[in-house]
Amino acid sequence: MTAQDTITRADTIKMDGADPIAHLRDRFALPEGDIYLDGNSLGALPHGVMERLEVAVKDEWGNGLIRSWNDADWYPAPQRAGTAIARILGADDDEVIVCDSISVNLFKLLVGALRMRKDRKIIVSEIGNFPTDVYINQEVADIMGCELRCVMPEEVESAIDDAGIDLALVQLTHVHYKSGRIYDMAGITKLAQDLGALVIWDLAHSAGCLPVQLNACNADFAVGCGYKYLNGGPGAPAFVFVARRHFDAMNQPLRGWHGHAEPFAFTQDYKPHPTIDQMLTGTASQLATLALEKAMEVFADVDMTVLRQKNMALGDLFIALVEQELDGMGFGLASPRDAERRGSQVSLTHENGYAIMQAVIARGVVGDFRAPDILRFGFAAPYVRYVDIWDAVAHLREVMETGEWRRPEFNEKRAVT
Amino acid sequence: MTAQDTITRADTIKMDGADPIAHLRDRFALPEGDIYLDGNSLGALPHGVMERLEVAVKDEWGNGLIRSWNDADWYPAPQRAGTAIARILGADDDEVIVCDSISVNLFKLLVGALRMRKDRKIIVSEIGNFPTDVYINQEVADIMGCELRCVMPEEVESAIDDAGIDLALVQLTHVHYKSGRIYDMAGITKLAQDLGALVIWDLAHSAGCLPVQLNACNADFAVGCGYKYLNGGPGAPAFVFVARRHFDAMNQPLRGWHGHAEPFAFTQDYKPHPTIDQMLTGTASQLATLALEKAMEVFADVDMTVLRQKNMALGDLFIALVEQELDGMGFGLASPRDAERRGSQVSLTHENGYAIMQAVIARGVVGDFRAPDILRFGFAAPYVRYVDIWDAVAHLREVMETGEWRRPEFNEKRAVT
């Protein structure tokens, strides 16, 4: 820092020099010249994934064909990928499995958990939760004859209290997809469990960026995403966590043959597998599962508390630079200022947010936009550098100063924002 | 044929010479020396799929990153792959979409269809239907307060009659996974519809081997498999068909954001997309979907009636050779002898079926085993030759004559049969 506490580009280069996990960046194939701040939406490509897919396609599928379910160990791939994920979530190796999408897994958990609390009728969730979570919550509430109470984030604890012994379930997204705000997992879990209820956490924006401690928090259930901070590839399969103490009581409704105790007995009566395998439904895409399994090697030797320190520092730097460089340009802060209360992203508001985001993307600074006015910038600590934050804010400044964002091409809506 | 009507290997080579679709075999990367008769379980690798995945991984994911949802047209991949499949199923281009697994899609259709027939309480299905179908049928019947009546195949029509105006749904697998027996799609559909009911067909063993005529049969709904005769790769995503006349009334329960009318508005209220897109739930694996889309190019110029003639002829040849070469060795025929009533596979029974199958697989003749005593041989017409049938039966004969199947290693159970 200079005497005036102004942050310079040279300062950020120094920060990179002192970064204990700077070497992780070499594990990714990143596009030349871009600054990628959207790992919270689609993680970057880890080296080795393409090679793994070549073996999977040419040797295992092409030559091994059906034999590869045994000979290439395809069959236990969902369990292996699950174990790799369990290790960065504070879960036991056999409590996580990879399958389906978050939406589908959430449906399984919601129905299964409500069946464990048959005499209770209230589900508490958040207004502003990720849309899929709300849609699935509402649908399951209707099917199961329950009441879904969506409340403002600051009202969650009192809504739990109000529900009392009628509370069946709490379903929350740990880190909010727009703001990055973090819920107190341990506190809310205890509050709900003290009333005899269960809690389902959506870890879409937590897994791979926070040292989640599922078992230390006594968590019941969780789902999460393979394609964000876990870098499993576009639309990678999701994961699902069930605390071992619930294996026997869980009775999930998407009963497919892969969740059966003896899938290859081909019996007509469903008997759920006694382990986490009971959460499986149909046959999983091997290409997708093996890519995610390979991508998880990035985390094999990473201390998640060190990684977390870095993404908090990256976020703090971003906020400081936005205030230093973009003052008076109409940006607001939509994320908690306190890094401890924020995931690995910082969201800004701006009335021209959509066009501004398109303009910086055209310059190779890739974040994303969430309606109505949110510019999201994600700081995947394994590959984002401190100097990238400096350069990103410099581009934002230029886009604003030049009025570049007003160009018609940046104001055209695209299929995917 | 010789004077005694004995079929010789030379005869089968002549049949290959006269095969109008023999050239399709060049579209696949097949393992040297093997005879692959398990395309009904996992289709072979089409040339071009590996190259498509390389572009998808290195260029689109690695370099394009999140931008590829727009720039590489990832977003409409489920629709494009669906259109390619629709064209070989006698459906309109916009009535089929690729997503999730058969089990998950069946759940969507069953609940959705029952909601269209709220006053009716009976579902008719088959004893011996593929296990996943039975499990999901039973689960949905329980959730929706309906009665599932599973009957023997020959009793399906009378069970439909018996249910009368209480009949809500019929759910059948068009071609049976073990025997290959084909249901009369047009006849059963009409029978059920005449009572005001709906029908859901599972096309797992039909798509890519029969000239399915969904709209000519006035079909309501169907699901099917991407990894068998469509050659989409291990665990490839499934497809789902909804007749356009049902788009408005369908109300499927796995409400994810990709099925929303405006996914990127991120609203809290679910509004189903007015098209086939409403069947989507979460984000699909792009790698899996793009591989299936590429694989479908195999069928782009194929006349399905010509392909069907060939797989019927391959099956007839197999049965004739089994009778000629394996007489008195304990094999029984578990498939219809009449090719018109049989899908693209022939199943044999044998009390030592498991070990015999392992022994021929060790010789490179790859079929599969289904408990308790079924040896399945699938004849994927795009890449199976007539001479392969001769050679496969010759290996079976040698395995029996030498007693090779008695070896301990062929009698050990493996994870996946």
UniProtKB/TrEMBL annotation, chains A, B:
* The organism of origin for this protein: Pseudooctadecabacter jejudonensis
Pfam families on file: KYNU_C (PF22580)
Specify the protein name. Answer: Kynureninase
Gene3D superfamilies associated with the record: Aspartate Aminotransferase, domain 1 (3.90.1150.10), Type I PLP-dependent aspartate aminotransferase-like (Major domain) (3.40.640.10)
Which protein family is it in?
Belongs to the kynureninase family.
Q: Which residues bind pyridoxal 5'-phosphate?
A: I102, S103, F130, P131, T132, D133, T173, D202, H205, Y227, W257, T283
Which keywords does UniProt give here? Answer: Hydrolase, Pyridine nucleotide biosynthesis, Pyridoxal phosphate
Hydrolase is among the record's keywords:
yes
Q: Name one GO molecular function term.
A: kynureninase activity
* Pathway the protein takes part in: Amino-acid degradation; L-kynurenine degradation; L-alanine and anthranilate from L-kynurenine: step 1/1; Cofactor biosynthesis; NAD(+) biosynthesis; quinolinate from L-kynurenine: step 2/3
Oligomeric state and partners? Homodimer.
Q: What does it catalyze?
A: 3-hydroxy-L-kynurenine + H2O = 3-hydroxyanthranilate + L-alanine + H(+); L-kynurenine + H2O = anthranilate + L-alanine + H(+)
Top-level lineage group: Bacteria
Q: Which principal EC class is assigned to this enzyme?
A: hydrolase
State which Enzyme Commission number(s) the record gives.
3.7.1.3
Q: What does this protein do?
A: Catalyzes the cleavage of L-kynurenine (L-Kyn) and L-3-hydroxykynurenine (L-3OHKyn) into anthranilic acid (AA) and 3-hydroxyanthranilic acid (3-OHAA), respectively.
Coding gene?
Answer: kynU
* One of the protein's GO biological processes: quinolinate biosynthetic process
Cellular component (GO) terms are: cytoplasm
